[in-house]
Every structure is written in structure tokens, then in C-alpha cells.
Amino acid sequence: MADVLPPTPGKLMIAGEYAVMRDGGACLAAAVGELVHARLGAISPRPTIRLTAFGQTMLVPLPSAGVALAEPAGLGRFVAGALAFLQQRHGLTLLRDVDLRAAGAVGGSKVGLGTSAAVTIATVRAVLASQPGGEAWPAAGVAACARAIHLEAQGERGSGYDVTTIALGGTVAYRRSPDRGESLPWPAGLHAAALYCGQPAPTAATLARGTIADSALDAIQAAAGALMAQWPTAVAADLVADINTCEAAFQRAAATAPWLWTPPMAALHEVVRAAGCVARTSGAGAGDCVLAFAADPDLVARAVLAWQARGGSAVARLPDDIAPCP
Q: What is the pLDDT of residue 86?
């Protein structure tokens, strides 16, 4: 017996990078695509989660009382952390074998869609689904649980926006301390594509590498706040201008924190701007994706074709690939 669960999306940050790490910080992000696929297998006395990601497969067994298990590496620690957390905090034990398969790679490298957050949420939902009759939690409950798991597994670093966005689906305005997310509609007439710059961003290392000046973070947060306030009602051309202001704030931060900006990112920005779009660095910088925004879908299509002509990849189209709210 096998049951296929709804796919878990990835995420793309639109505005609020780094400033969202502070108490009271906020950001805007979108849940996109189908990043992790989960299938429940047979009931087992010792269930195991098989995780396949980035060309590798590992088995993560259920925690056993009194038996010390070696901590799995990489994404496996998020699976193991979820199993232990649900068992210890909620009395929920995985009852069936699970197969998890993560996509979101180009040439075997991550592209910045939040694979660890998606794997964490997929594991939580698989444990719930394995219960007799299937146990359902609201999306906000899954987000809160997965945030705690993810934060612990990655060494208490991160804002939690990625987990919340993936759990809630749609376009999400996320505010930190207290952590909460609100799903917003995608504005009519706004178009974007996420293009992979060809270089994965070492997010954990980037977060730990150095500090960004408070004045730069203030500018990033002010720009993100203005965009979020306009998001539900403004016309697309005005939103594109606000998004450009968000990018200008990031560029000022990168001028004093050069690890945020790399030659592959610069090359992609050049292609996007030459196509007539606004280029918006997505997330932590130092690699991963750049968003091409425009009010004219033909301009976005032109940016995609120009980047593909140089051997690059498009990993999402917005709003077409925005994941629905569960």
C-alpha cells in the first residue's frame, strides 16, 4: 500500500533579506513549484524515511529510546530532527515507511529554493499522514512546528520565513517576533521569472560570515515595508519600481559586504536589465537565483530566453508556478 502526499513547494524571497533576521523584521516571499515529493509505504514496526536529494540517497531510521543513533549528515539531520521533535513534543511516531524525493537542483547543485525547509515540512506532514486515519494540522500549526525543528537543526540561525512561506503557500508576508505569516494574492499584471545564476549560495556560511551595518539593514527593511504595504492594491508598474528600490538597498549593503555579490550574479543582472526587466536578488545573495520583474510578460520572456541562450536556467515563473495554499 502506498499513498502519494501533496507535493511540498519551495520558496523565493522577494524583499526583506537579512533585515528579517532582526526582531520585528519582515519580508515578502512566494511558495513556488513542487520541491519535495512524498510517498507513504507500508506500516512497519521500525519505519524508515528514504531521502533522495542532489543525486544521493540516505536512510533515516526512527529514533529509538535508549539507543544512540549516529546523526545523519546534510538534509538527513532535518528529517531526524523532525522525527525526534514530533515524538518527544507531540507523542507522534512515524508508523509507515516514507520515500522523500527532493528536486530543485541544476547540475547537481541547489538553486536556493529552500530544500532543507521543504524537507522538514514534508517530514512533518508525512508523520501526520501516517497516523491512523491521517492527522490534519492547520498550515500555521505545521509552520510553527517546522520552524522550531528547522531552527534547531541549522544551529539556531535563520528567521523562519522560508519554513512559514512553504507551509502556508501562496505569496506570504512574514513578520518575525512574534513569528507570523499572512498569505497575500499575487498582484494582477505583475510578472517574474526566477533565473539561476549558475553558482549555489552557501547560505549558512554567508549568514555567519560577517555583519551588515544597521543603516543598510534599516534601508532594506524600509524598502521591503513599502513594497509590502503597496502589494495588495498597487498597479504592477508601481510595484516594479518598489522592487527596484529593494534591489538598490541590497546593492548598497553589498558595497560594504562584498561576499553578498559575485561575478555570476553580476552577469545575470546584466542580462535581466538588458531585457528591460528589474533584476531582484532573491534571498541571501552570494549566488542562487535572481528574479526578473516586469509589468510586461514579454519582457520577462525575453530575459528568460536571453539567459537560456547563455546556457542558464529558469527555475520558476511567477505567478504561474506559485504553489496554492494547502
A: 96
- pLDDT (average), residues 229-256: 96
Q: Which three cell numbers stand for residue 319?
A: 505567478
Contacts of 304-307 with C-beta under 8 Å, sequence gap 24+, read 304/193, 304/195, 306/271, 306/274, 306/275, 307/195, 307/268, 307/271, 307/272
Q: Where are the beta strands (DSSP E) in the chain?
A: 3-4, 8-15, 26-43, 48-53, 56-61, 96-102, 105-106, 109-110, 171-175, 180-184, 191-196, 278-281, 289-294, 313-318
* pLDDT tens sequence across 243-293: 999 999 999 999 988 889 999 999 999 999 999 999 999 988 888 999 999
Q: Where are the domains of the chain?
A: 3-184, 191-318
Looking at residue 231, the DSSP 8-state letter turns out to be T
Q: Which three cell numbers stand for residue 264?
A: 555570476
**Using an 8 Å Cβ cutoff, are 126 and 94 in contact?**
yes
Query: Is residue 120 a contact partner of residue 52, using CB atoms and an 8 Å limit?
Result: no
Residue 272 near residue 296 (C-beta atoms within 8 A) = no
CATH class of 3-184: alpha beta
Q: Which amino acid is at 279?
A: A
191-318 sits in which CATH class?
A: alpha beta
Domains 3-184 and 191-318 share a fold: no
Candidates 159, 206, 156, 162; CA nearest to 20 is: 159
Torsion of CA 139, 145, 148, 150, to 10 degrees: -70
Cell matching residue 138: 492547520
